[in-house]
């Protein structure tokens, strides 16, 4: 998948991803090959104008803690 991502970029593709058969390690290796930061290196930002996940949208962290954060 990393080789695929590099070849895609070389021919001018600007939006590179996987299909439903891709798993996290596939996407992670593509990101690393393209020089992107991995999830363990990025800061998760919560609370902006638009939720970044369904978990955030539905406020599941409040549900899991009984309303406490």
Describe this entry's structure for a reader.
It is a single chain. The chain is an all-alpha fold and 69 residues long. The chain is built from four helices and no strands. It has helices at 2-10, 24-33, 54-57, 60-64. Helix 1 packs across helix 2. The longest helix has 10 residues, at 24-33. The radius of gyration is 16 Å and the shape is elongated. The relative contact order is 0.12. The mean pLDDT is 77.
Could you name the key traits of this structure?
69 residues, mainly alpha, 4 helices
What are the secondary-structure elements, in order, as H or E? HHHH
Strand content: under 5%
pLDDT below 50 for ≥5 consecutive residues: which ranges? none
The major sheet is characterized as: none
Number of helices: 4
Q: Look at the structure and give the mean pLDDT.
A: 77
Helix content: 40-55%
Overall morphology: elongated
- Amino-to-carboxy terminus distance: 38 Å
- Category by helix and strand content: mainly alpha
What is the radius of gyration?
Answer: 16 Å
Counted beta strands:
0
Provide a quick synopsis of the model:
The protein has 69 residues and is mainly α.
